[in-house]
Design goal:
Blueprint (H helix, E strand, L loop, with lengths): L1 E5 L6 H12 L2 E4 H14 L7 H8 L9 H4 L2 H10 L3 H16 L4 E5 L2 H5 L5 E6 L2 H14 L6 H17 L12 E4 L5 H14 L1
Parallel strand pairs: 1-3, 1-4, 2-3, 4-5
């Protein structure tokens, strides 16, 4: 069984995907970390995130086994990841890895922005997770503060709106709800309520 979880930044899709994977004893892949790893490799080497040639090369060399999730989830890495993820060459370089991960029995839960539309269009369950921009900004600000970063929530909201626009308007695999995906709005739901709602959607399939 493949469960595809898509949605914009800070919608809660990652937390939801982890809980579903544990519940159904499936492997989990946060595909956003792949793009963050590409971005971090460029930043660490002193290159601009907009350098597509170097970004594509980095995408072909990443090793998920060595990911430091805390480092990858830093604010500046997320901003750079939003840039590299819009590059068709980077997305193409990571395409096979994601598909192969999902294909290993007994299945997996993948979360990202194009799982149900591009990576796993035949997934048995597709859920598109969303929430209001203000709620998402509050969640992301709290997450970053929990990691010891100093952030302004208004700035986070501005960045989230900019990322939403970039994700939805890019030519390669834009963020959109698959026609057969269930919509799950988590604006007024806590983690447990969102998880229970997601389980009901999975079980309905």
């Amino acid at each position: 069984m493949i469960i595809a979880i898509d949605g914009p930044a800070a919608s809660g899709k990652g937390t939801l995907a982890k809980k579903l994977a544990a519940h159904y004893r499936l492997r989990h892949l946060d595909t956003g970390l792949l793009y963050r790893a590409v971005a971090k490799s460029l930043l660490d080497a002193g290159h601009a995130p907009a350098d597509e040639a170097r970004a594509v090369a980095a995408a072909g060399a990443i090793d998920p086994a060595g990911f430091d999730e805390n480092a990858l989830k830093r604010y500046e890495v997320g901003e750079a990841a939003s840039v590299v993820s819009a590059m068709p060459g980077v997305r193409a370089a990571l395409f096979n890895f994601q598909q192969e991960f999902a294909a290993v029995p007994p299945g997996a839960v993948l979360d990202g922005r194009d799982i149900g539309t591009v990576i796993c269009p035949n997934a048995e369950v597709k859920i598109f997770v969303t929430a209001s921009p203000e709620i998402r900004a509050g969640r992301r600000a709290s997450e970053l503060r929990g990691r010891g970063e100093s952030v302004d929530e208004a700035d986070v909201l501005t960045d989230i709106l900019r990322r939403d626009e970039r994700d939805r308007s890019r030519s390669a695999a834009p963020l959109k709800q698959a026609p057969d995906a269930h919509l799950l709005d988590t604006t007024s739901l806590n983690i447990e309520a969102a998880f229970q709602a997601a389980v009901r959607l999975v079980e309905s399939r």
